[in-house]
Amino acid sequence: MSRPDLMARIGWLVIAAVVALAYLNGLDAPFVYDDRIEVVGNRTIRDLGEWQAIAQYNVSRMLLVWTYAWNFHSFELSPTGYHVFSLVVHLLAIGAGIGMARALGRLGGHTFPLLAAVGATGLWAVHPMGVEAVTYITGRSESLCGLFCFSAMGLWASALAAEREGGTGRWARILGLVCTLAALMTKEVAGMLPLVLVAMEIFFGPAERTWLKRPRWGWLAPFLILMAAAAWGRMAYAGELLPREVDRSLPVQLTTQTEVWLRYV
């Protein structure tokens, strides 16, 4: 193991220890707010054998719902087990975040990519605004989606680095696609991930390719298919594209969401 790899793992363990210590007092917190609907009152997660019912409960977040089902199978309605699971997800997301930031820093020619990666990820990991994603069981979607998004971006960066050195990076891209699919099955915000990967292709692709020819469009096509399938699935199984939580007209909904998407871009 190289010294930078060893230092990255040590940085991960140090941050993980600090985060775990910070959240220990929340492991026995009860179910609150949406937890009472998505977990306590959700009859579809009571039997792992009813996989179709679990998948159709929320087709936009079926992987997330599967984690609830596994938690119920293991801990029934004891919230401590759910909280421990959420904390583990967050700790794994920290490791993925360090790997992603370090890989992007190296591609971008950062002077101290490892230091920047550990610092940025550490700040994100312990920031008070992340409390809900760890201690609020329904908020697990944030950390779980982050884990898969960070992993996809890190793998894509590894593929680009391999191509710079004359390799193919094929397997890293395939695993990146798998992580992207997992992210899309966890939370809708992962629909922004393809835009990030396109930007990485343009700015960090091999230097011998021109600016417009840098993206490997063949590898990006599956993202369009996944997003189209996700939209179709939501309309087919949920009955409509727009949620029922708030009664808004279609023009108001579209203009509101346009502002959100522009801010993400």
Average pLDDT across residues? 83
Main sheet specs: none
Continuous helix count: 12
**Strand segment count:** 0
Low-confidence stretches: 241-245
Helix and strand pattern: HHHHHHHHHHHH
- Percent strand: under 5%
> What is the radius of gyration?
20 Å
- Outline: globular
Structural class: mainly alpha
Helix content: 55-70%
- Quote the distance from N terminus to C terminus: 37 Å
Which characteristics define this entry?
single chain; about 260 residues; mainly alpha
Helix-strand blueprint:
Elements: H1 3-23, H2 35-40, H3 51-57, H4 62-75, H5 79-107, H6 113-126, H7 131-135, H8 140-164, H9 170-184, H10 193-204, H11 217-238, H12 250-264
Concise synopsis of the structure shown:
The chain has 265 residues and is mainly alpha-helical. The protein has helices at residues 3-23, 35-40, 51-57, 62-75, 79-107, 113-126, 131-135, 140-164, 170-184, 193-204, 217-238, 250-264. It is built from 12 helices and no strands.
How would you explain this protein's 3D organization?
- By secondary structure, the protein is mostly helical.
- Helices cover 70% and strands 0% of the residues.
- It is built from 12 helices and no strands.
- Residues 241-245 have low confidence and may be disordered.
